[in-house]
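[Target chain]
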Amino acid sequence: MRIDKKDVPVRIEAPGATARLLTGFGDSKGYTTMSGEYFSLAAGTDIAPLLVGLEGDSCHAPHWGYMAEGVVIVTYRDGSTEEVKAGDMFYWPPGHSVRVEKDAEVIMFSPQHEHIQVLDHMKAKMGG
């Protein structure tokens, strides 16, 4: 799920300040401590091969975030895809992979335990 800033409903508008709020933006029930993450990803990066061996050969951690720069294609377990581009706020539920189309700077918040498991698996696949 992605949404452009201009499509997030305005909750408060005052001189010099606008507060936008989208309710129901992903579900964090069942997860514990969250981590804050910043990813710098080069065009051409595709994490799918690094996810092989995980449940559904995909990332099992949900992510909430903001695409500061670039373009990423997210592929979900059901085969659907979504383009997330600079300026988009996003929620990626468990069961996804990403491929970078244009150099990207991504800010994410994820359940710490689940995402560390995925990152450790990816690192092992890379030989590190």
